[in-house]
Design goal:
Elements: E1 16-18, H1 20-25, H2 30-44, E2 49-51, H3 55-58, H4 62-70, H5 75-81, H6 92-106, H7 124-134
Parallel strand pairs: 1-2
């Protein structure tokens, strides 16, 4: 990310993760969400903000991915608080947040060859996935929200 546009907080092992707070604010309070992103990036640096979804609570994260791709910090907030623009959906800042920062943090190679786990692998999740695929079930990206029960 080159030179960090942040004040040195005295630590380099602190990361801000976007998850429930982002999900709760991106659509309902976009200016609050923009301020959250601006504050994290200004304080920690764009190289210390990572993507998270809490998909277990919100279902498919596609809507959150789209929200981060589209959000920008308004110019008035950039001027007033010294926030830097987030840039293009596939630009440096958002790409870093979406995965490059986590890959670096966990030492993952972005050029690694994908090798599926064998069905006999002892990991429970791998076994469940293999059973799911053997059953011929199709993947679903359906998102389920809250349903109000009528009295």
């Amino acid at each position: 990310m080159g030179e960090r546009a942040r004040r040195d907080p005295g630590v380099n092992n602190v990361y801000g993760e976007l998850d429930t707070t982002f999900a709760n604010s991106a659509v309902t309070h976009p200016r609050y969400c923009a301020a959250l992103l601006g504050t994290l990036i200004k304080g920690l640096g764009a190289d210390h903000v990572v993507w998270g979804t809490d998909s277990v609570w919100y279902g498919s994260p596609q809507w959150q991915i789209e929200a981060l791709r589209r959000i920008e910090i308004p110019e008035d907030m950039q001027k007033k608080y010294g926030f830097t623009p987030l840039g293009a959906a596939d630009g440096m800042v958002k790409s870093a947040i979406f995965g490059y920062n986590s890959a670096r943090l966990y030492g993952l190679s972005l050029r690694a060859e994908h090798k599926p786990l064998p069905a006999h692998y002892q990991d429970k999740l791998a076994r469940l996935r293999a059973e799911y695929e053997l059953a011929g079930l199709a993947r679903s990206n359906a998102a389920y929200g809250f349903i109000r029960k009528r009295a």
